[in-house]
Amino acid sequence: MKAVHMIAFIVLVVGGLNWLALGLFQWELGDLFGGSAALISRIIYVIVGAAAVYELITHRSRCSECAAGSVRQSTQTM
User: Which of 5, 11, 22 has its CA nearest to residue 44?
Assistant: First the structure.
């Protein structure tokens, strides 16, 4: 599962950089593949969205900082 996590992380970074390019330069990665209406662009967007959902569901159990944060919170409340 570590491989799936790393792939999802890389896809999310690419998606984030795409949003950055869109916000700063009005340029989108999907334009390289024929625009956002092209099938390949839509597939890429679905993959990025699926990676985001996967990370949203599995992040807390896999992230050492988030897991450490939940331990710190529980010990502080005692």
Answer: 11
The pLDDT tens digits for 7-51 are 888 888 888 888 888 888 887 777 777 777 778 878 888 888 888
User: What total of structural domains would you count in the chain?
Assistant: 1
The structure tokens listed for 25 are 């330069």
pLDDT at 66: 64
Place of tokens 């998606």: 15
Helix (H) or strand (E) holding 51: helix 39-62
The answer to whether residues 48 and 12 touch, using CB atoms and an 8 Å cutoff, is yes
Show the domain range for 13.
2-76
| Structure tokens belonging to residue 23 | 């916000």
